[in-house]
């Protein structure tokens, strides 16, 4: 693997942080509207934690975050070496619970959740950043169980089949993912994962990482995100083919929420991915909404996205 490919892989692996802002159909035209309020299924991006959204819950919806394989408190990512004071030598060599995890595993876990909640009513699946790769896969696999897909500043490979391919496109050239690489720990070939030490100190890392991920959030909001982020992510997922199947994925109504201040997945790349997908599914195009926020939506801007999700649900 060349240096450039390793760089793109690491950048892709940390490009899922907006998933932390989240929290728990056949398309209506194919299966008919199911009774009951919709369920929101949230798929986090890299380093994220499964979570529902409390505001949507208070509005009467079911919300569930998919516990992706290798993630979660029982997976073993958080240990004494990662806890302050850190043991950096141990952290650099500890085998990762993500070592054998693939995008197929993410797909299977998400489909299992969708199958359970689809019995209760319409299903809206929301993915952030690298979570878009999983959205593509489940849209290809079970379009008859999903009523709407929402890509929240998420990767949507189509003509460019992988997350790494998307980042390598000219529209991805301005990504500031380099800021996160300085926190990479260990050799992915040894530990079996891309490991980011989100608890790395130093004003340079904190300032550059905040600019890349959360430029419109407060310092406190950004630090809270770092403290909750999981260090390991799959090496395989950013390289996995997750291109859309126009005949299946293309049946599902879908929305793309562009983050216009995004410095990790630049606006030009978000627009390119929308355009490429629409070109393959001309009878069913993205509805696009712009929100003036960074890759990791600030709380104020996330409230706007919640209102949009509410509107989508009410129209089912």
TrEMBL record:
UniProt cross-references to PROSITE patterns, sorted A to Z: TAT
Signal peptide stretch: 1-30
Annotated TM spans: none
Top-level taxon of the source organism: Bacteria
One Pfam family here: Abhydrolase_6
A single MF term (Gene Ontology): hydrolase activity
InterPro entries reported in the protein's UniProt record: AB_hydrolase_1, AB_hydrolase_fold, TAT_signal
Domain named AB hydrolase-1: residues: 41-286
Keyword tags: Hydrolase, Signal
Protein name as it appears in the record: Alpha/beta fold hydrolase
Species of provenance: Tenggerimyces flavus
């Amino acid at each position: 693997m060349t240096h450039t490919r390793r760089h793109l892989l690491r950048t892709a692996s940390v490009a899922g942080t907006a998933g932390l802002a989240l929290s728990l159909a056949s398309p209506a035209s194919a299966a008919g509207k199911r009774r009951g309020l919709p369920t929101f299924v949230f798929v986090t991006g890299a380093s994220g934690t499964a979570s529902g959204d409390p505001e949507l819950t208070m509005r009467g919806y079911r919300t569930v975050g998919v516990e992706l394989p290798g993630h979660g408190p029982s997976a073993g990512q958080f240990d004494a070496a990662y806890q302050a004071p850190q043991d950096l030598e141990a952290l650099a060599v500890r085998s990762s619970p993500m070592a054998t995890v693939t995008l197929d595993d993410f797909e299977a876990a998400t489909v299992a959740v969708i199958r359970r909640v689809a019995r209760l009513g319409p299903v809206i699946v929301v993915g952030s950043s690298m979570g878009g790769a999983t959205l593509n896969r489940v849209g290809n696999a079970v379009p008859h169980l999903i009523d709407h897909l929402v890509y929240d500043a998420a990767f949507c490979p189509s003509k460019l089949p992988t997350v790494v391919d998307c980042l390598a496109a000219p529209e991805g050239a301005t990504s500031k993912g380099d800021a996160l690489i300085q926190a990479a720990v260990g050799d992915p070939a040894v530990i079996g994962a891309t490991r980011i030490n989100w608890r790395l100190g130093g004003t340079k890392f904190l300032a550059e990482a905040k600019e890349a991920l959360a430029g419109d959030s407060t310092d406190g909001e950004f630090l809270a995100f770092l403290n909750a982020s999981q260090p390991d992510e799959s090496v395989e997922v950013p390289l996995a083919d997750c291109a859309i199947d126009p005949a299946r994925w293309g049946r599902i109504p879908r929305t793309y929420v562009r983050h216009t201040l995004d410095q990790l997945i630049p606006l030009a790349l978000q627009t390119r991915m929308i355009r490429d997908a629409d070109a393959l599914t001309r009878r069913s195009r993205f509805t696009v909404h712009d929100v003036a926020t960074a890759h990791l939506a600030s709380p104020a801007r996330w409230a706007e996205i919640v209102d949009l999700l509410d509107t989508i649900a009410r129209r089912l």
